[in-house]
Specification:
This protein is of the alpha/beta class. The strands form two sheets. The protein has a five-stranded mixed β-sheet with strand order 2-1-3-10-4, with helices on both faces. Strands 7-6-8-5-9 form a five-stranded mixed β-sheet, with helices on both faces. It starts with 10 loop residues before the first helix and ends in a 6-residue tail after the last helix.
Length: 334
């Protein structure tokens, strides 16, 4: 065996070798430290790629705005980006194109999105009809002097088909709040246009959301029926199924942050008045007086209500596929 003898290193060479060894050991120590904190590194990577949630600038999204503003999502290791769309059509296109990981929308539209192949599940109701707090209403044009809808022999009602508003109008008819079949339904998809048609007398009635109901009333319109006593879920937040099945419990952490936002809103609603006005498109004349709404507890819509909605969509011809509640609603337990 040949014994090879290397020449001795000079002083400068020994200094360079020591310096190289020092930096190698420093890098090794950093790597070991990173591996020891695997969870933190994983959440850090998640933070580099935000969870993009497509929303509309409406009242129902205020808890999401609070969760982002107050850092409740960040506290859970989630970087959530609220992507605001001016129309449901634009939001849906982005969701179907894979540009979003989450979604806010009405119950009907959410079912249609899942039916179209978007692998999404509802994780919580965003808003539900509740006594004493209207969210949608059938509003009469200024100058309409009928004491009630029963006193009207006929008329037109503006709405958008295949949405929660059509569902609510059918429920109002079913429960005697609106005379069944008496009013000609005219589709006016864009809500601001519908309101202007109502105020201009081109519609006798229209179904509108808040705060436009309050604004219309301030301009001479009249409320004839509301969703207050229907007590049904209206809008939801959904996330992609892959996120709800991941190993870092994204769904549970998302809901924890959302619950914190709901608690903050319940404790001090006035604190978030300016945030509501800025992000939920409260008309300027209502910004100082419009009440901050109460929101339902975090959690998926009741199964019976999802089943009722699916049955209605089948009757309306909106759904032919055999979708079940399990296809639509997330459960954190298998």
């Amino acid at each position: 065996m040949e014994l090879r003898v290397f020449p001795a290193l000079s002083v400068p060479q020994r200094f360079k070798a020591c310096r190289l060894t020092f930096f190698c050991l420093l890098a090794l120590g950093f790597l070991i430290g990173s591996l020891a904190c695997g969870t933190a590194v994983s959440w850090g990577h998640a933070a580099e790629k935000p969870l993009r949630l497509g929303i509309l600038p409406v009242l129902d999204t205020l808890p999401l705005q609070v969760a982002v503003t107050e850092g409740y999502f960040a506290k859970q290791g989630l970087a959530v980006e609220l992507v605001v769309f001016d129309s449901a059509l634009e939001r849906d296109a982005a969701m179907q194109a894979g540009q979003l990981e989450g979604y806010f929308g009405d119950m009907v539209n959410t079912v249609l999105m899942v039916r179209s192949g978007v692998p999404m599940r509802m994780v919580t109701a965003a808003y539900a009809a509740r006594p004493g707090q209207r969210q949608f209403a059938v509003v009469g044009r200024p100058g309409l002097n009928a004491a009630s809808l029963d006193a009207m022999a006929s008329g037109t009602v503006g709405l958008s088909n295949a949405t929660i508003m059509e569902y609510l109008l059918d429920l109002m008819e079913e429960r005697g709040l609106v005379p069944p079949g008496r009013f000609e339904r005219l589709e006016v998809k864009k809500i601001p246009v519908r309101m202007q048609m109502l105020l201009g007398g081109r519609l006798d009635l229209a179904i509108l959301p808040e705060p436009l109901v309050t604004l219309a009333v301030s301009q001479g319109a009249r409320v004839y029926a509301t969703d207050e006593d229907l007590q049904v879920p209206l809008t939801v937040v959904g996330l992609l199924h892959r996120l709800l099945n991941d190993s870092v419990h994204t769904g549970e952490r998302f809901l924890s942050a959302y619950r914190e936002a709901l608690a903050a809103l319940a404790q001090n609603p006035e604190k978030y008045r300016s945030l509501m006005a800025a992000t939920c498109r409260i008309p300027e004349e209502l910004a100082a007086s419009y009440h901050v709404p109460e929101f339902p507890e975090a959690g998926v819509p009741p199964e019976v209500e999802v089943e009722r909605l699916l049955a209605w969509m089948r009757v309306r011809g909106l759904l032919t596929e055999a979708l079940s509640v399990r296809d639509l609603v997330w459960s954190p337990t298998p």
